[in-house]
């Protein structure tokens, strides 16, 4: 079984998220999503509209996602790749090069984001500058 992992906040879930998850799942047989906890988002100075539990429930309802785990700190990725026997680590292309250190453990793939949609864009269009 080929295992794939990706990370994110997945707030204001939109079709760009779904497309990323679909493409990640196509790279293997089992997709794990490490979802940023509310506490970790505070460390990253990110504010989510939905709580961790609400975001987790939404992700778990997506057919491409097999398991949702909490992401609690920046250093967790190396441990997760070992713990879950990951074959492929996937992130959006805006993170290009940031996780190349994982190439010693698994394949690292940066997928192009879906054009014309992002959570930042949604917030800006709804509220003006991102809050």
UniProtKB/TrEMBL annotation:
GO terms for molecular function: glycerol-3-phosphate cytidylyltransferase activity; metal ion binding. This is Glycerol-3-phosphate cytidylyltransferase. Residues 5-124 form the Cytidyltransferase-like domain. GO terms for cellular component: cytoplasm. One of its GO terms (biological process) is teichoic acid biosynthetic process. Its EC number is 2.7.7.39. It comes from the Bacteria. It is an enzyme of class 2 (transferase). Keywords: Nucleotidyltransferase, Transferase.
């Amino acid at each position: 079984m080929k295992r794939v992992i990706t990370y994110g906040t997945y707030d204001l879930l939109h079709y760009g998220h779904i497309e990323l998850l679909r493409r990640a799942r196509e790279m293997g047989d089992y997709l794990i999503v490490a979802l940023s906890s509310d506490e970790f988002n505070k460390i990253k100075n990110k504010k989510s509209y939905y709580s961790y539990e609400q975001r987790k429930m939404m992700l778990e309802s997506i057919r491409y996602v097999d398991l949702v785990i909490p992401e609690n700190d920046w250093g967790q990725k190396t441990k997760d790749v070992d713990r879950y026997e990951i074959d492929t680590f996937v992130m959006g292309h805006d993170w290009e090069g940031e996780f190349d250190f994982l190439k010693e453990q698994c394949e690292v793939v940066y997928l192009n984001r879906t054009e014309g949609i992002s959570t930042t864009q949604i917030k800006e269009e709804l509220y003006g500058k991102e809050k």
